[in-house]
Amino acid sequence: MTATQQATTPTATTDLPVVGHWIDGAIGAGTSGRAADVYDPATGQVTKRVALASREDADAVIAAAAKAWPAWRDISLARRTQVLFAFRELLNARKAELAEIITSEHGKVLADALGEVSRGQEIVEFACGLSHLLKGGQTENASTGVDVSSIRQPLGVVGVISPFNFPAMVPMWFFPMAIAAGNAVVLKPSEKDPSASLWLARLWQEAGLPDGIFNVLQGDKVAVDALLESPSVKAISFVGSTPIARYVYEVATQHGKRVQALGGAKNHMVVLPDADLDLAADAAVNGGFGSAGERCMAVSALVAVDTIADELIGKIKERIAGLRTGDGRRGCDMGPLVTGAHRDKVVGYIEQGVAAGAELVVDGRDKLVDGPVGGFWVTPTLFDKVTTDMSIYTEEIFGPVLSVLRVKTFDEAIDMINANPYGNGTAIFTNDGGAARRFQHDVEVGMVGINVPVPVPVGYYSFGGWKNSLFGDTHAHGTEGMHFFTRGKVVTTRWLDPSHGGINLGFPQNV
Ligand code: NAD
């Protein structure tokens, strides 16, 4: 490992560029006078500021979307498809640019950022099939001379509120589907890495999307509350931590909106004694430390049956020793954490784990890294002998900290997962098909991997957890996504026939 121990120099934040809103096809500075710092996590420097909307700014963005929406709703499916295809082509050609932006504000390594964009692109590709996805049903002669058809129509203006950890992919879980279905979108990105949203907005404009159909509202709670409370916003797709997801669900439903609010996670990976332990060790390292553990599908609890735990931990330790943590632009394996405050929180959890009596097998504090000294570093950390009452297990750390919990039996592993309040993702490593089948049947988790550590569903399936990992019932993208962004209408038709005239106040019966 090489360490470029450069000192950082403080920057005068007032001279920095400010990331603005995207309203009706143009950048808007807003009127609030409020802004937050945006960091390059690998250097620890503030590189820009982001505007934080006032309620008036939010209302202006929502009004622009509401004004643009009716024309987009009425545009043919053929034309909508062409715009989606053009967006897909531009994204595919230029995704390296977007990946660089993500790395510069989030910190994840470039290859990982590119992977994020590609997984988002999958949803755009799925949404290109909008004409098929929006097909209704038709029944001829439901009653004599009566036909019934069902259609699905867009909702209007929809709000998408996204977290810092996937500044491109998570918004792309929703907005391609919403736009394909004929809605207008207001995206409220995370204030920690806001620039990807503006890059995507410009791309939509280049793809031919009419102005006002994709808008970006930068900000914090003020912007979120405006979206939750505005009568013009008909639906909210939220992704973030569980307390905020619960809040968003409660407030937005009180305001009459449909809501899908995806929350936090604690994902368990179970390793049975018959598993290929090299494969399982690779998977635990990839799933635990990819994106510095800042993934809602990261493996954070490794549940090992006691008989193989020592061997598995040995293999994981060897692999951690070969990882290079550093600036994501330097070909490292793992980047920094998103902010200094988050780094300090993760370090605090490591201290709590030690104090609670867990065995710290690999300590990621104060290690040499391939990046400037001011970066927000924690290198891969491994705990053994973690128990379910320790805070490193009960809380979502969202950092590169992998906790091993030892169990005696398979049943004990399943009970542990089902007792956990989160239910986002889980995985099992085994060569026993019967055990895997029982796991997938009994485990109370929304996304299950069998010998796959991070089982993020492909775009044409739907993404979503159970329990405290999702409030609402509709998962993201796939056919559930198209359902979320449309509402059903059933039309019953009878063409006039003199034989059906006359007065009858009884409830119509089918004959
Ligand atoms: P966060 O909850 O802090 O923020 C998410 C969004 O909510 C941001 O846009 C933020 O500006 C806004 N927000 C924050 N505080 C708010 C408040 N008090 N009132 C209203 N809005 C508020 O989450 P984060 O730190 O950006 O992201 C990490 C979290 O997201 C983790 O818990 C992770 O598990 C979760 N996540 C979940 C999924 C999933 O699919 N379930 C996917 C990605 C991330």
UniProtKB/TrEMBL annotation:
Keywords: NAD, Oxidoreductase. Signal peptide: none annotated. One of its GO terms (molecular function) is methylmalonate-semialdehyde dehydrogenase (acylating, NAD) activity. InterPro entries: Ald_DH/histidinol_DH, Ald_DH_C, Ald_DH_CS_CYS, Ald_DH_N, Aldehyde_DH_dom, MeMal-semiAld_DH. GO terms for biological process: L-valine catabolic process; thymine catabolic process. It comes from the Bacteria. Residues 34-491 form the Aldehyde dehydrogenase domain. The keyword Lipoprotein does not apply. Its EC number is 1.2.1.27. SUPFAM superfamilies: ALDH-like. This is methylmalonate-semialdehyde dehydrogenase (CoA acylating). It comes from Nakamurella panacisegetis.
